[in-house]
Structure formats: C-alpha cells, structure tokens
C-alpha cells in the first residue's frame, strides 16, 4: 500500500512539474521577453523569500514564473502597442486587462494550482481595490502572493526606467495603493 501511495504521489508531482514546464516553454516560444520578465520576477521573489519566511513560498515563486502566461491569449498587435506605451482604445485595454484572468483560467485546470491561479488573477490589483480584475476584492482579501507580485512587478517597471533600486523603492512608497 505504501509503495502504491508513493508511486502515485511521484506520478502526480512529475505531472505537475511537467505541466508547469510545458507552460513555461510555451511562454518562451510565444514571447521570450515575457519569459525574461517572469524569470526576473521569480528571482526577486526568491531573494525576498530568503529573508522572509513564508509558509507556502513555493506558491509565490511558481506564480512569479507563470505570472505572464495570460499574455499568450492577447493579440500580438495589442502587446506591441502596450510595450511601446502607445494609447490603447478602451476595447483593447479591456482585452489587455483580461490577461490575469486568462492565466488564472489556464492554471485552474491543473490540480493543486488553485492558490497559484488566484495569485496570478490578483497580481495587478492595488491594495485599495483599484486595478484589475475589477471586482470588490481589496486589502488583505487580495492573496498575499498577488500583493507581493504587484509590488515586485512595479519595482521591475520603475527600475526599467533607469531608476536605481533605492530610488525605485522610494517612488513605490509614495504611490497610493
């Protein structure tokens, strides 16, 4: 019985890891730049995890690696406009804002990924409820991992504008939400 249970557990773990690996490969093929952003985000989460003891650190790290997976459902022309910081009409902005929901739905189909799916769904939500998805969830009702990814994603964005880390952190502290 023990060997059967252990073999089943090993199969489930390998299936989960294989599924995640396939998703990362798809993201890499579709948009290597987005994969790079995911890797950068995961590195920050791992660094932070070394300092802060989170009970389920693996969930936040996995969510960081898969945080950009929803972009595979966004038309390339909208992605290009967004990367070039061009104005997006409301319909295109709505499509872009659906990205976390796409990623969350993809992951919700994989067993044991419910919490990671929720982290990804709320990774663009401000603490006071602004951002997307546009639902009433705010504050501590936003999963911890979603809040962490929001802050670290914003840090990456600010540092990408040639702002040194300490300056970027100061700018983030001044932002509401």
Would you mind describing this structure in some detail?
The protein has 177 residues and is an all-alpha fold. 67% of the residues lie in helices and 2% in strands. The protein is built from nine helices and two strands; from the N terminus they run H-H-H-H-H-H-H-E-E-H-H. It has a two-stranded antiparallel sheet with strand order 1-2. Strand 1 and strand 2 form a beta hairpin. The mean pLDDT is 86.
Secondary-structure-derived class? mainly alpha
Low-confidence stretches: none
Cα Rg: 17 Å
- Quote the beta fraction: under 5%
Mean pLDDT level: 86
Biggest sheet statistics? 2 strands, antiparallel
Shape call: globular
* Distance between the ends: 52 Å
* SSE pattern, N- to C-terminal: HHHHHHHEEHH
Number of helices: 9
Number of strands: 2
Strands of the biggest beta sheet: in what spatial order? 1-2
Helix content: 55-70%
Itemize the secondary structure elements and their pairings.
Elements: H1 2-30, H2 32-51, H3 57-66, H4 76-83, H5 90-97, H6 99-108, H7 114-121, E1 124-125, E2 131-132, H8 144-159, H9 165-174
Antiparallel strand pairs: 1-2
Considering the chains and any ligands shown, give keywords for the structure:
single chain, 177 residues, mainly alpha, two-stranded antiparallel ribbon, 67% helix
What can be said about this structure in brief?
The chain has 177 residues and is mostly helical.
